[in-house]
């Protein structure tokens, strides 16, 4: 069974039709990059996958549960589906280590010693083991985002969602964050859905690239076809031309 499956999904904000007839299947272990112009519905789509935005019609199966069904337990989905935001969303009054240990302690009731050991391993993996006792405000944006990624990984999710994780960062911080994301993408068990304008990342590690405009998916290609061949959709071709030359 696919990790994520949209079947004719519709999403409205009031009268505004934000996601139109979305059909999309993402298999376990795939890395999928979602691109498109501002306002095309990328954030909306990614936020439906962990129930941050409800959908109004269709079927949306995530890890075997239907999010379009109001009876579905969203907390069970969120245990397996982590999210990394543009603005990190760390707890300002907790240390870095506490930020990472909190959810596994409360939600998974993970043993305290094991929790700390795993948190330290993750800090090491994102290159910040020496920052464990600091507070978020003492770190740079790029470091905070790497902590936010480590915090998501602490739940041992099956799937990670990234919503423009590098757009709020100074240019010199971006590569450190992308390198951590590339490392996760190479882990064949993790499913990743990433909204980003970083085409180097998409080209290097994405299995697929999806282009959205006006709430619709207009192109869904292998990364190779998208970058080395040509998207068949005219708007996708234009978009690609613009972002690569600018
Ligand atoms: N909470 C909301 N209420 C009403 N309309 C919304 C809401 N959130 C988003 N929208 C609208 O839905 C459309 C899609 O927005 P969304 O943020 O998903 O686009 P996006 O492709 O992620 O854009 P960006 O790249 O600028 O973040 C936009 O027209 C936006 O104004």
From TrEMBL:
The keyword Transmembrane does not apply. This is Amino acid ABC transporter ATP-binding protein. Pfam families: ABC_tran. The keyword Cell membrane applies. One of its GO terms (cellular component) is plasma membrane. It is found in: Cell membrane. It comes from the Bacteria. It comes from Lentilactobacillus curieae.
């Amino acid at each position: 069974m696919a990790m994520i499956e949209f079947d004719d999904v519709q999403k409205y904000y009031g009268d505004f039709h934000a996601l139109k007839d979305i059909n999309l299947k993402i298999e376990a272990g795939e890395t999928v990059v979602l691109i498109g112009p501002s306002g095309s519905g990328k954030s909306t789509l990614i936020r439906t996958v962990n129930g941050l935005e409800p959908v109004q019609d269709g079927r949306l199966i995530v890890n075997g549960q239907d999010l379009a069904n109001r009876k579905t337990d969203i907390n069970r989905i969120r245990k397996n589906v982590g999210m990394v935001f543009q603005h990190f969303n760390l707890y300002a009054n907790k240390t870095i280590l506490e930020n990472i240990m909190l959810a596994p302690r409360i939600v998974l009731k993970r043993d305290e010693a094991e929790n700390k050991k795993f948190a330290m391993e993750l800090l090491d993996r994102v290159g910040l083991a020496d920052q464990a006792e600091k507070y978020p405000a003492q770190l740079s944006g790029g470091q905070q985002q790497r902590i936010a990624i480590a915090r998501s990984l602490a739940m041992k999710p099956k799937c990670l969602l990234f919503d423009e994780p590098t757009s709020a960062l100074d240019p010199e911080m971006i590569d450190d964050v992308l390198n951590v994301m590339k490392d996760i993408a190479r882990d064949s068990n993790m499913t990743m859905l990433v909204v980003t304008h970083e085409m180097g990342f998409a080209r290097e590690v994405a299995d697929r690239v999806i282009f959205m405009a006006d709430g619709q998916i207009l192109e869904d290609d292998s990364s190779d076809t998208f970058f080395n061949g040509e998207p068949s959709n005219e708007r996708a071709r234009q978009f690609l031309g613009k972002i690569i030359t600018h």
